[in-house]
UniProtKB/TrEMBL annotation:
Predominant location category: mitochondrion
Regions crossing the membrane: 30-47, 67-85
Classification lineage: Eukaryota, Metazoa, Chordata, Craniata, Vertebrata
GO terms (BP aspect): mitochondrial respirasome assembly
CC annotations in GO: mitochondrial membrane
Database matches in PANTHER family: HIG1 DOMAIN FAMILY MEMBER 1B (PTHR12297:SF9), HYPOXIA-INDUCBILE GENE 1 HIG1 -RELATED (PTHR12297)
InterPro entries, A to Z: Hypoxia_induced_domain, RCF1
Short name of one Pfam family: HIG_1_N
Keywords in alphabetical order: Membrane, Transmembrane, Transmembrane helix
Name the UniProt record assigns to this protein: HIG1 hypoxia inducible domain family member 1B
HIG1 domain: residues covered: 2-94
Cellular compartments annotated: Mitochondrion membrane
């Protein structure tokens, strides 16, 4: 056993949690952006909860959920469009060199 490291260490040959997170972020960078946008919208809407006026609580929460989901879906769509563009440009680049 190790001498009191104070934190869980993954077994040999496995990635640490932070290493895995950084690798996944490099593979698909828009996922953390979508998550951040979702959290930002939800935080703002919860902060504005007191100033909702005469709007019912359920309606305010539904609007909060829809706005947060819109950020997440928007990031997914941007990622899909970026991936399609990148794949298309890779496919057409060798074709342009052959002509």
């Amino acid at each position: 056993m190790s001498a009191n490291k104070g934190w869980w260490v993954p077994p040999e040959g496995e990635e640490s949690v932070s290493g895995k997170f950084l690798r996944k972020t490099r593979e698909s960078p828009l996922v953390p952006i979508g998550l951040g946008g979702c959290l930002l919208v939800a935080t703002y809407r919860i902060y504005r909860l007191k100033a909702r006026g005469s709007t019912k609580m359920s309606i305010h929460l539904i609007h909060t959920r829809v706005a947060a989901q819109a950020c997440a879906v928007g990031a997914i769509m941007l990622g899909a469009v970026y991936t399609m563009y990148r794949d298309y440009s890779k496919r057409t680049a060798p074709d342009a060199g052959e002509k």
